[in-house]
Amino acid sequence: MKLLVTAGPTREHLDPVRFLSNRSTGKMGFAVARAAAVRGHQVTLVAGPVSLPTPAGVRRIDIVSACDLLTAVKRRLRFADALVMTAAVADWRPASVSPVKLKKRGMSRVLALEPNPDVLQTIRPCKGTRLFVGFAAETGDPVREAERKLRTKGLDLIVANDVSRPDSGFAVDTNKVTFLSLANDSLERLDLPLLTKDEVAERLVEWLEQKQCEEV
Ligand code: CTP
Fold first, then answer.
1. Predicted local confidence at residue 166, as pLDDT
2. Is 184 a catalytic residue?
């Protein structure tokens, strides 16, 4: 299979030294890329700013912002059988970006923002027979929110990720996740135990392999 995986945060710059971002470290997405490559798949990894080594055998494209991520995904999607969006895409960006460092004297207390494109929604018309997987990092009710995103983003699978636990989510090596998919519009739910991100990645790649076999 040819996999396109996105990972890490995006950074939305305000000036050359300041940005809006989030706590994603890219561990989950890099684990997916590594697991898929180990199982013999061809992997392209679109990575936000993270400090992780590129997994062996993976082609890596580095990006900074949500708009960069969208451009990279649009460019590579045609070569992919499956897209796995683990990237924590910033939903907002500063309305204007200064090419030079802003001075506090001249700065307003209010930061004007504009919405970033939703990558999955934007590329949805090009999905075709490709498998699309999303991740939902949640603090409230992970499964309810993830189900909403599974349906509204037209995904084949969403991984609901409870980031309120200290052993799950950002910057740790383990994750507590639930796989949610739809079969004839009814929800299929697989609650996984606490696993390492490498184990979650393997389960995810196995799910994709299984799904692709069913569709042939
Ligand atoms: N995503 C995306 N483009 C965005 C934001 C998110 O493609 N601008 C993708 C993420 O990569 C993830 C999925 O959508 O696979 C869910 O992301 P999440 O941040 O949980 O959801 P949002 O759509 O941002 O919704 P909300 O802010 O309401 O939680």
1. 81
2. no
Which long-range CB contacts under 8 A does 121-124 form with residues at least 24 apart?
A: 121/152, 121/153, 122/70, 122/74, 123/70, 123/73, 123/74, 123/77, 123/83, 124/153, 124/154
Distance from Cα 126 to the centre of ligand 1, integer Å: 18
Q: Across the chain, what does the average pLDDT equal?
A: 95
Domain boundaries, given as residue ranges, for the chain: 2-91+108-215
Ligand 1 lined by 137 (C-beta under 6 Å) = yes
State whether the beta carbon of 66 lies less than 6 angstroms from ligand 1: yes
pLDDT score of 113 more than 80? yes
- Residue-level pLDDT at 167: 82
- In short, whether 15's Cβ falls inside 6 Å of ligand 1 is no
Give the domain 2-91+108-215 fold. Answer: Rossmann fold (3.40.50)
| Of 39-43, 124-128, 182-186, 189-193, the least confident | 182-186
User: Is ligand 1 within 6 A of the CB of residue 119?
Assistant: yes
Dist. CA 110 → ligand 1 center (Å): 25
Q: How confident is the model at residue 42, as a pLDDT?
A: 98
Using the atom order of ligand 1, give the atom closest to the CA of residue 66: 8
Which residues on neighbouring strands pair with residue 61, listed in sequence order? Answer: 46
Q: Residue 55 has which token pair?
A: 């997994």
Q: Are 55 and 4 in contact (CB under 8 A)?
A: no
* Cα–Cα dist 126/112, whole Å: 32
pLDDT for 118: 97
